[in-house]
Amino acid sequence: MSKKIIIEPFKIKTVEPLHIATEQEREQYLKNAFYNPFLLKSSQVTFDFLTDSGTSAMSSAQWAALIDADESYAGASSWEHLWQSIHDLTGYPYILPTHQGRAAERILYGYIGKPGKVFISNTHFDTTRANIEFSGATAIDCLIPEGSQPSLIYPFKGNMDIEKLEEIILQHKAENIGAVILTVTNNSGGGQPVSMKNARDVKRICSKYSILYILDCCRIAENAYFIKHREKEFEHHSYFDIAKEMFSFADGCIMSAKKDGLVNIGGFLALRDKKLADACTNLLIITEGFSTYGGLSGRDMEALAVGLKEVFAPGYLTYRIKSTTYLGEKISKKGVPILLPVGGHAVYIDAKALYPHIPVHEYPGQALVCELYKKGGIRSVEIGSVMFGKYDEQGKLIPSKMELVRMAIPRRVYTQSHIDYVAEIFDEIIADRNNVKGYKIIEEPEFLRHFTAKFQQL
Fold first, then answer.
1. Which pLDDT value is given to residue 2?
2. 127 prior amide bond cis, ω within 30
3. Which CATH class is domain 60-310?
4. Architecture per CATH, 23-52+313-457
5. CA dist., res. 57 & res. 55, Å (int)
């Protein structure tokens, strides 16, 4: 069998129709949504690359497990299955199920965060930062310099800057650090992986200053793939064992299982420390549900228990990473500036380089997501100054370090011909690039503005 062709390592058993609108219809849909793809209806979208979170197609084994679920309120056998699956992977004794990752973030960071506390990450994602800042604490990014250079080829651009990490700790004093959070892969930084060496080094610094070390592990399997293929020490290790070793360095983890859990809903918080786990369990019961379901049905827990095993299958991970790379390489050859090397779950386009005539305060990334939808029915998301920009005391925009657009690819959903179609749309994007104009925000909330902000085309 040819090794040059990427084949989907599954057969299709159920199909869902694609919605195909005309370009004229899409322009009206986008105008009605105030030029924010989050406000579009799914029935108006042909290819949905808004997120890879909760958009996976489940396997026949997962659907079979759903039928056998136990929906008891307390102590369900489905919870036993999920607990065992998470414990086998992480090694942590205290596991709190939640309906998704941001609920686990709210519980942990809401409990340990408060004014004066500082949280340090390679890059905080949007909900992580929002939950930390909502508590009154401060979130500081500590990414290696290579991670902010889109065109630079570097194997582990998601790494924490260890020297800077220690500087921040000394500056703010160890007793004021709420936690150090290592996100694998680094979503906001382009889906870039973190090396095992870097995870060890973070552990060394956290142990030195007695600081809580949390792994944000929603794409841990994809990160394990990169470690196996880029870090020589691990070339003969299984993906599962690589992930287990990374968990061994941390004091706990948060997972949005809607990514590498291969499910449509679900997450968890897992910890080593009983005292911290007890406090978080109280908050779990108050806000999510009882400690043995935490906002999930038995069906959800069964599907997740299976998904956490399936995601480490070599055939699946090879297909997953190579199919994402396939799209990135195709559009890069057309002259589209992308973040290199291609990450695990998404292709990130450098909108500032694509549209150098659009200044950052006119949001070149938002311009590109609108063009992708108008020209191809493709929904994507801006990861730049709309998502991460702030204002100074005079109300002037403090821009993000990068102006990216993320095309996050759902797991086991689209075929290679779908991806070829998406790549072809970029011929039109390139041809029309000089005619594209920027946008301004006309309405926005205080937190997570990219979800609901309204825009006006300039």
1. 47
2. no
3. alpha beta
4. Alpha-Beta Complex (3.90)
5. 7
**Beta-bridge partners for 215:** 182, 253
Quick one: tokens of 381?
Answer: 């998301």
Q: Which two tokens stand for residue 447?
A: 């937190």
Write down the domain spans for the chain: 23-52+313-457, 60-310
DSSP reduced 3-state for 361:
helix
What letter would DSSP give residue 43? G
**Single pTM value for the model:** 0.94
**pLDDT means over runs of 10, the chain (458 residues):** 75 93 97 97 97 96 97 98 98 98 97 98 93 96 95 96 98 98 92 97 98 98 98 98 98 98 98 98 97 97 98 97 96 97 96 97 98 98 93 91 95 95 98 97 92 96
Question: What does the DSSP 8-state code read for residue 336?
Answer: -
**Exposed e or buried b per residue across 33-55, where buried means at least 16 C-beta atoms within 10 angstroms of its C-beta:** bbbbbebbeeebbbbbbbbbbbb
Predicted confidence at residue 347, as pLDDT, reads: 97
For residue 375 the two structure tokens come to: 């020209």
> Helix, strand, or coil here: 287?
helix
Using alpha carbons only, give the angle 150, 155, 161 rounded to the nearest 5 degrees. Answer: 75
